[in-house]
Prior knowledge:
Blueprint: E1 2-11, E2 16-26, E3 34-39, E4 43-48, E5 51-56, E6 61-65, E7 72-77, E8 81-86, E9 90-99, E10 103-113
Antiparallel strand pairs: 1-2, 3-4, 4-5, 5-6, 7-8, 8-9, 9-10
Amino acid sequence: MALKLMCLSHNLFPPLVQQVESFSLTLNRFSSHILLEAKNSNCIVLAVEEQLMVYSLKGALLASFKDHSMPISSICVDSFRVVTASQDLSLRVLTWKNDPDHGLTLESQYHLLGGSQTMSRFVHAVQCQCL
């Protein structure tokens, strides 16, 4: 499966949206579990099934994580962290890190386990809030 991602820039005055970058992404299999978020104008966070990937706007893979055992159902991205929720009833918290050799990447920090599969299907949404 191939995805065509276009990165757009939005100016308020005058109202204008223009394409900044574009790249194609080939996935190993078809999936209905694809989530996409952006971290300001530096990179894109993509969740496909149980895998989380970070891409530059040029299409370079910066980091990849496969910490969940079932598909990711929700992601939240802010300037400090990425939080993922999964159908395996767990949450993962990853923080942004500036690596001198590899640039911006994510570092896995916490794994929070949920309840029972018999009582709940999965976490439907996560939200980040900077205090």
